[in-house]
Amino acid sequence: MKTNIKLALLLLVIFTAVLIMSGLFAGVNIRLFSVISQQTGINYTSTSPFSYLIYIITAGLLVPTAIILLLVKYKKIKIINVLLLILFLFVMYAFSDILLLDIYVFTLHGNLNSNGSLLTIFSLLIYIMPVILTVYYFKYAGKYGKDILNIILFVSISAIISIDLNIITALILIAIISIYDYISVFITKHMLTLAKAFSGNSFGGISLMARKVNQNRVFLGGGDMAFPAILANEFFLRYNLTSGIFAIVGAVIGLSIILFFGKKEKAYPAMAAIGPMQFAFLGLYFLIRFI
Q1: Spatial separation of the C-alpha atoms in residues 223 and 79, rounded to whole Å
Q2: Which residue has the higher pLDDT, 32 or 43?
Q3: What are the two backbone dihedrals, phi and then psi, of residue 210, each rounded to the nearest 5 degrees?
Q4: What pLDDT score was predicted for residue 208?
Q5: Sign of the dihedral through C-alpha 253, 259, 262, 267
Q6: pTM > 0.85: yes or no
Q7: Distance between CA 3 and CA 259 in Å, rounded?
Q8: For residue 78, with 0-12 CB atoms within 10 Å meaning exposed, 13-18 middle and 19 or more buried, which class applies?
Q9: What is the pLDDT of residue 197?
Q10: What is the mean pLDDT of residues 53-68?
Q11: What's the pLDDT score for residue 111?
Q12: Which one, of 89, 104, 107, 99, lies nearest residue 25 by Cα?
């Protein structure tokens, strides 16, 4: 994936920003769910982390991959586009729900048990905002508008997933994804099929991360941002800020290795480099901490 320095630096800046924003969003969300639990008695973290991990791997990775590969094989591109629209709408609903609740609770100091007109307005916006964003994204947005919404998409997915995992399950998830990414690119090569299918679709990664440079395509998908963010979030939320920073630095260095040292015209599994570097830097953190 070797590319020019300017593009590589821009990729790294955006990649780092996604990881940081995901951690901040996840942190605010945990505070929000604590307030909701106190006021309504609803427990938002009742799911077993290991059960949730299995769900992510099967329902969030293996099953969708199999379905899309099948649709690509039979050239059912319209069906793929419909599925992407539904997925985008669903994530935008989750994002809008959490964002508006954050604003209502922490900015306006609202009481969720109240029946005021302000709460009614916010409740309506939770349903209206995702539809507006989805229509804008698929019909009116230019490449930079889609870039912004894609960043929101990846930040939201990683932050929401982080809430129901813990450090152990996040480590297992990243280990599995790193191995899976290597196998899917170098052995089964089905990830190359998916990348080709999404090459003309901004949904798979922001336009900066999916462009041609000197006739060579540079592509970094949403999963390559979301999964590293999940691991960093868990250490940031469950352990301390410094360990989360080490996980972010490891991810950035892992991506840098591919961008600066990868061969031209050759596809590389980003997570196969990012994941191990996150593990290495977390190991370095604990070595420094306990020496």
Answers
A1: 21
A2: 32
A3: -140, 75
A4: 52
A5: positive
A6: yes
A7: 6
A8: exposed
A9: 67
A10: 89
A11: 65
A12: 99
The two three-digit tokens of residue 273, written as one number = 């480099």
Sequence-distant (6+) residues with CB within 8 A of 228 are: 19, 174, 247, 248, 251, 254, 271, 274, 275, 278
Number of structural domains (the chain) is 1
What range defines the domain where residue 283 resides? 5-290
Residues sharing a CB contact under 8 Å with residue 198, sequence separation 6 or more, in sequence order = 204, 205, 210, 221
By the 10 Å C-beta count (0-12 exposed, 13-18 middle, 19+ buried), 19 is classed as buried
Q: Residue 213: its pLDDT value, please? A: 46
Encode pLDDT of 191-203 as tens digits. Answer: 877 776 665 555 5
